[in-house]
Amino acid sequence: EPTVRTELMEQIPPIAIFLQESRPKFPTAFFEYLMPIVVRYLTDVNNQVRKAGQEALLILLEQDLVAQSDIENKVCPILLDLSAPDSDDEYKVEAVNIICKMASMLSRTTVEHMLLPRFCELCSDGKLFQVRKICAANFGDICNAVGQEATERLLIPKFFELCSDSVWGMRKACAECFMAVSYTTSPEVRRSKLSPLFISLISDTCRWVRQAAFQSLGPFISTFANPSSAGLYIREDGTLSIRPPAQDVNSNSCQPSNNITVMSSSANAA
């Protein structure tokens, strides 16, 4: 029964945590018995079971309970199969969604070598706009996961494609994550490539795209500032925080400091 399999998936994370805490007694139980079940249920015929399996997998990754070898040899291959061009539409949408969510939990090497090529392919998926929409909404997180070099070499060309997509929702999603993308690039790329691209979004024919772009204008401008003098930095939760200069804090030591926080576009998209 699908309900039984769904309930089983919901119990996997707490069981895995118990086994991790009792590892001397059960050194290989999780890897031999539970992990294969999680991987198998990612392709279950029932969508509720698959959803439960995806949620369980993300919890296990977040808790650092999955071995690197299992990620590279079991999890990534099945996601690549599910997101292949000839894969079923429903499976493909689910696969790209989980690829985007798990990117921030994996090592940069794993993401760049195993998942990034497929993500770039999915950005140009001409069959399903839902796939491109997920890629656009999570673009900033992928850039942050792979770093500046891979972003400028592989992702920026794809970002240009998505920013000129015929579906306005795609362009709006790009406008919303613009700050996160810009923050990952060099000052030269921001000035010579991203600035003209941002102007095109502000001048878009769709008012929803223009509105999203204007809302991202301040955060995008902030990426040009020098963090050491402006006190701008990106927190781990994806928010842009502005700290007052150190001398101001010292001169007003009796006053509580007022940090100004602006939500980044990637956080809003999530």
From TrEMBL:
UniProt keyword Lipid biosynthesis, yes or no: no
Annotated transmembrane regions: none
Domain of life: Eukaryota
Residue ranges of HEAT repeats: 115-154
GO cellular component terms listed in the entry, alphabetical order: cytoplasm
InterPro entries listed in its UniProt record: ARM-like (IPR011989), ARM-type_fold (IPR016024), HEAT (IPR000357), HEAT_type_2 (IPR021133), PP2A_Regulatory_Subunit_A (IPR051023)
Keywords: Repeat
UniProt-recorded Gene Ontology molecular function terms: protein phosphatase regulator activity
PANTHER family: SERINE/THREONINE-PROTEIN PHOSPHATASE PP2A 65 KDA REGULATORY SUBUNIT, WW-BINDING DOMAIN-CONTAINING PROTEIN-RELATED
UniProt-recorded name of the protein: PP4R1 phosphatase
Top-level taxonomy: Eukaryota, Metazoa, Chordata, Craniata, Vertebrata
Encoding gene per record: Ppp4r1_2
